[in-house]
Amino acid sequence: MTSVSPLDALRAVDFDGTLHLASVWATPRFDVNGLHAEVRRELLTVLDELASQNEPRSPLGRVIVGSGGTGKTHLLSVLRREASQRGCSFVLIDMTAVRDFPATVLQGLVDSLGRTIDGPGEANGPEASSEQQPQYRTLLARLLSTFELAEPVSRSIEKLEHFSPDRLLRNIALLLTEMSRRHPPETMQFQDALRALIALNSRDLQVSTLGLRWLQASELDTDERRMLGFTRSQSEPFEIVRAMSWLMSLCGPTVIAFDQLDPIVHQLQLANAHAEAGESLPQSVLAARSIVEQIAGGLSALRDVTRRTLLVVSCVEATLDVLRRHALRQDLERFESPLMLGSLPDDAVARSVVVQRLGDAFDRTGFSPPWPTWPFRPELFDNLLGLSPREILRLCAEHRRRCLIRGQVVELSSFAVDEDAHQHGSSPGEGASESGEREVSIPFRKQAHELVHESISKPDGGKSDGSPVPTEQQMLDAEFDRLKSEADPASLLAKLHDDERLAPLLQTACRCLIRECRLPEGVDASVETDFGNPKLPPLHARLRLVQSGDETERHLCLRALQRDNATAFQTRLKSALTASGIAADLPFRRLAIFRRGSVPSGPATEQLLNEFREAGGWLISLSDDDLRTLQALNQLETTQSPAFVDWLKRRGPVSSLEGFRALTADWFP
User: Fold this and answer.
1) Which end of the chain, N or C, is more open, meaning fewer C-beta atoms within 10 Å of its C-beta?
2) What is the pLDDT of residue 463?
3) Based on the number of CB atoms within 10 Å of its own CB, is 425 exposed (0-12), middle (13-18) or buried (19 or more)?
């Protein structure tokens, strides 16, 4: 006899059909092989051909086209998994904030090298480890395995990891000598790529930062070049991509996947509305047009820059149409005909999409359903053709929500019945309907947020209209004040701990901001916190506002930056500029750098700061009281109090901070 009630079992089901781009790096939790089977077969055939051949030439690229919810991002996750199993490197280019196409590609390459592949033993190849490790380490292992070493590759990597710069320089020279025997011209041209890869693997912070700076196309001074023998002080982004692609091709094929092209293209589509109205085009639209033209040409050029590399572009059909209009004929010839993702192909696949979600929750909770699709009756899946996976999951999630509100599980035979029943206010306990809907009565255990709270007098900071404040609100007030008094601003401002101590506060601030403010009508908000290489993330948070209808987006990017070393400061600020894509003529993107104290001195830093300011960047100093507020808020959020959201709306702790108020006042009514 199960100890879990049907209602609790249903509550545990994950019907979320929206995947964030970072999920591409994780093994898909739910994957139905029959979904987009033909598209999968074509992509996997290309991967198999790449893995079996040693041709340096890259194949024609592929474009995956589908509307929202058809599974484009999920398919990229599957492709990433399959590529890893075939010994291929995988690079993901996030085009959300593209401004300079080559710089965005390079940023995606660097972020991808630092990604830890989820899932033990996924990385095939010589001496593949069952331990998770960043891609650059897997790549280095594959490269070293091509040499005749006197010891296991894992031991060689461990030594290189701990060598001093002098010993590292000598070992790099030995490896380059051996490589030049096999590939003389390429080794001469691309030798700095090997230096950077080995430096990236070093435990010495100065050495690993040096490798990262070369990969970011930063200018190296004389001492930095001398440390590991770099031949040039600086290279252009596409030249670095070319060098790394050659190095990666020695170890196997590569997949470079592009996603999130749609936001910038949507900005360009606004030009049609202005043109039809006889209006001159805003500067932002002209800037978007320039970026789209750069993307169209850049995607074509990238095939000539890379070796043994499959380019995959994911977008909606409208984006592809715009790219076609802004591309030359020879650009289009670098890609095969689009691979179209449509609705679910048959009832069996639709059923599998739901059964996987239900089975996962029922296994975790120990619940035994009367049939696999319970509480959705088998006949429900007879008429779902034409729907996308996300649409079906959304309908399932809506039915679950209504069951939880009622405190009863409803066995459903038609989504249309579900919509109609609730729109007309069917009451619990009515039994079977004429169309087969049957309600199963379950004792309703009220959740804390559904209890009727005793009203008390308004405490300080309560509603200005004098209405009473719930008891739990008063408790949150007291807990917030206690946490704030115990906060330690000095610890938060430690120079080397931006990513561990300040980043979580900015992420919490974004999540709380969209809860406490009233979003404009038709606007959805989300917060991103995963930006690739955990050793040096380009951003700490991105708040994304999406307008339904025209799908235009606004982005607010945040990063804490307390480093006093000029090189470290420049490296991080440059990454933030690229990842945010801000520009004076792109007002829908914003970047705020949070810093206490003066910035490092020097002409290079000043030049980069001028670029930051001219692009519209914000440099914000948080007071001790601001830091105390954010630290207390970060801790209070973890309590998961049912009254927390209402408390945020009443207190407005983030929107009342001067820096955040200045950043967002014109974006929130």
Assistant:
1) N
2) 44
3) exposed
Q: Token pair of 30, please? A: 């739910």
User: How confident is the prediction for the chain on average, in pLDDT?
Assistant: 85
Model confidence, pTM? 0.84
Contacts of 287 (CB under 8 A, 6+ apart): 583, 585, 586
Q: Which of the residue ranges 322-336, 344-358, 375-389, 415-429 would you say has the lowest mean pLDDT? A: 415-429
Tokens found for residue 161 = 């990891």
pLDDT tens figures, 251-263:
999 999 999 998 8
Q: Which amino acid is at 352?
A: S
How many Å is the maximal CA-CA distance in the chain?
Answer: 83
CA angle 346, 353, 389 (to 5 degrees): 75
Tens-place pLDDT, residues 88-134: 999 999 999 999 999 999 999 999 999 987 543 344 444 444 467 89
Backbone phi, psi, residue 394, to 5°: -65, -40
Residue 634, CA distances (Å) to 153, 500, 599 in order: 43, 13, 27
**Amino acid letter, residue 319:** T
- The CA distance from 128 to 396, in Å, is 41
C-alpha to C-alpha distance for 652 and 661, rounded to whole angstroms: 11
DSSP, collapsed to helix, strand or coil, labels residue 335 as strand
Closest CA to 215 of 110, 116, 321: 110
Quick check: 141 and 154 in contact, CB under 8 A? yes
Task: Give me the residue label for tokens 């690739």.
Answer: 532
| Average of per-residue pLDDT across 479-491 | 95
Helix orientation angle between 644-651 and 471-486, rounded to the nearest 10 degrees: 70
Q: How many angstroms separate the CA atoms of 634 and 509, rounded?
A: 8
Q: Which two tokens stand for residue 636?
A: 């209070």
